[in-house]
Amino acid sequence: MRVRFAECDPQSIVFNSRYLEYFDVAMTELWREAIGPYEESMGDLGVDMVVAEAGLRFRAPLRFDDEFELRASIRRLGTTSMTTAIAVIKDGTTCVEGELRHVFVHQGTADKREVPDEVRAGLTPYLAD
Amino acid sequence: MRVRFAECDPQSIVFNSRYLEYFDVAMTELWREAIGPYEESMGDLGVDMVVAEAGLRFRAPLRFDDEFELRASIRRLGTTSMTTAIAVIKDGTTCVEGELRHVFVHQGTADKREVPDEVRAGLTPYLAD
Amino acid sequence: MRVRFAECDPQSIVFNSRYLEYFDVAMTELWREAIGPYEESMGDLGVDMVVAEAGLRFRAPLRFDDEFELRASIRRLGTTSMTTAIAVIKDGTTCVEGELRHVFVHQGTADKREVPDEVRAGLTPYLAD
Amino acid sequence: MRVRFAECDPQSIVFNSRYLEYFDVAMTELWREAIGPYEESMGDLGVDMVVAEAGLRFRAPLRFDDEFELRASIRRLGTTSMTTAIAVIKDGTTCVEGELRHVFVHQGTADKREVPDEVRAGLTPYLAD
Questions:
Q1: ipTM
Q2: pTM (predicted TM-score)
């Protein structure tokens, strides 16, 4: 991925909120690899996720046109929630790292539910030690 | 309204796409004044709008923390569509101006429908000569 | 402030990254009240701030057209950094709360510097107990 | 490229302003191919571009996770400005198409200047008939 001009601010660096857009892309791609396209796989199960917590630590800025990669691993897979560690990496250097905690809900509601078995099975290989 | 830092790019001016976010705010406020809160009033009628065309002319840049106002007037109210002229004004100077053409659809679909009578009645006073 | 349509996602709630845009608005307004317009006051001092850490806890979603207010108080004012607690409140309920840790730098650089005396004096009344 | 979740609105389609972010990516990639990385090549020449006009026609919506490509060709290369036609295409279908008119300026100013010879030479092969 490359930093888009529109993602940078007058300090000529990526504005902090944009990293949460990148984190969401990391989740989408983790899902595709582990379980399948998010909407299809989750729609079939009648389940959805909402973000409950986010944390970000900014170590070095990204700038317009920088190439970077996203790495995601699951730190904790609980009964109704999961915590994913995400890193934004440029040339081997971690520029931003953080976590997203998601809660599983019945689709179209805010009601918590257990992680479906199919999802748990798919995600388990991505659990960090 | 004031320009937010996150809306500005490395040229230290509001990035062009952000004006379409402002245009949408102008539509929301025009609706509130003419008809009522958008979601309530349109939901009751089972109708929605989608943007079919947008045009923008950038005359002078806005910068971080600039105060500005939005002006909207309806240029054309057709059978199934409307065209709204919108201006972004700072200290009496038009910085950006443009148009949005919206098409009325049955809610939850992409199927065109006529402008509801209640909407037409509410919008008519905002028709520019 | 009101939630803009463009800030909401297909779950019909404000997308998580947008709260960091709101947090930045809260910082801008805290600055205006405590010290003066950010760019003027900081430019005169040759100083700038960069975000080092951000944390957010999402308690209840905001939706399109919701009215909300932002509250900011300084939790810690160190030698070269400050931590600000920010809450997004709707009808007396805290929907999202979090912190931003900023580091003071010499303008145009990433080099840390001490909080200028004028800034420290202005911010001290906003320190939470 | 794929549509990001954060780019979609409560109608479950890409919000209109996001296409101007895509258009900017199209310009960046056109530049890379025709002339070189934007900031390096333009910085060396002491020149920059600002957007003067934008037009968009929305033919079909893009949704979360849709794959699409961007196509750009130069419609007009004038003395101090250029107009680029851009299309957002999914599975061979043009979903959104439009134009950006850019004006060349002396870097760090709003003062118009002629298109540099190096830029004109690089862009000429991309002129649509």
A1: 0.95
A2: 0.97
